[in-house]
């Protein structure tokens, strides 16, 4: 009898450790001890029958948990497949291979029409709309044993610049180091929360898809991914008409000769993937701190930013959200940023909430289409300065993919974005004095080879 009770205790102990909580176990033991099992009148056959039923229940519970785990793993696999298909467009086509070097590129043409007239500044369509060459780019990807590298150069109308240029090493523990002009780790993904061609407002204040010169270390630890970066400067000035703004990403620039330049910036990002949740979720935090080197009579400054972000995925749905606070410690209420060969003032201190909802549809029933991804995005720059108007933007659109083709269709509605609307002085990310809502419809045709 004692051997059978030991067997029961051992089975229950294993059951508790693997599948139930302590309160449930205590309740179960209480019921078990108060039941007639301990009665001297109970036969050994009845006890054996109880043991068999308990063992059967334990096996059924194990089988149910196994099915649940398999279901969660299937969800995770599906999520990874969707994320891979929505990854950087650089990997859409094979390009040309020469030994360890892969050569590719893209050519993009843009059509724009808006409810405003044309004027100087960023490329935007007037009342009749217009076609322009968006960009031509060349990509180089290097891979030999554990050594890797990437380079990308882009040409636009009247200006051109280096977009990416780094060399790296893949370690045996799946970590990687990149040295050169690489993407700063900040936010939930390479493009922040955005899936659109327009991006969200984080991009225009240098907090999404920002390329700088430095070292980045990427370290996966089970479900956790850590990114650490140190950047000695921004990516620099290339060929254009502006003094310091012929570049891809938005940086603090010394356009007047008496401004600031970015120096010695430190970044940290941690993202944990809860892949076994009913709705798989990636939760993350991003931190940034850097110095501002004064080129004028004013003192040196510094800047910092902190962000909480999440990506929730359910089947082919994806909801990305982000809340960011940034502060540039400079003289004045705004600081000059530059990109795409023009400059713009940006509020020195603000909050940026942003969210994007998208759905990936694999168009297996349509011969001329591989996939379509509709999306809805909202973001706003909530400025600390009471005299400044906030800068909001709403984008409704879809991205269509077919072989090497990728086409964005965006309907953007904004009261504070330099690329939506027409305003002299270009202060929409700064004071935004007009605070006028305007609309831009944009189609970007891209072929990637």
Percentage of helical residues?
10-25%
Here the CATH topology of the largest domain equals Porin
Widest sheet, order of strands: 2-3-4-5-6-7-8-10-11-12-13-16-18-19-20-21
CATH level-two architecture of the largest domain: Beta Barrel
Q: Give, in order, the helices and strands.
A: HHHEEEEEEEEEEEEEEEEEEEEE
CATH class term of the largest domain: Mainly Beta
The Rg value, from CA coordinates, equals: 28 Å
Give the N-terminus to C-terminus distance in angstroms: 76 Å
How many domains? The number is 2
CATH superfamily of the largest domain: Porin
| Weakly predicted, low-confidence segments | 1-5, 11-42, 72-92
Describe the fold and architecture.
The protein is an alpha+beta fold. It has 2 domains: 2-80, no CATH class; 103-448, Porin, CATH 2.40.160. Helix content is 16%, strand content 47%. The protein has 3 helices and 21 strands. The protein has helices at residues 2-19, 22-34, 44-85, and strands at residues 96-98, 101-114, 130-144, 147-156, 159-170, 176-183, 211-221, 224-234, 251-252, 260-274, 281-294, 301-314, 317-329, 334-339, 342-347, 349-359, 361-362, 371-383, 391-402, 405-414, 438-448. Strands 2-3-4-5-6-7-8-10-11-12-13-16-18-19-20-21 form a 16-stranded antiparallel beta barrel. A 3-stranded antiparallel beta sheet has the order 9-14-15, with no helix packed on it. α1 runs parallel beside α3 (44-85). The N and C termini lie far apart (76 Å). Mean pLDDT is 84; it is low at 1-5, 11-42 and 72-92.
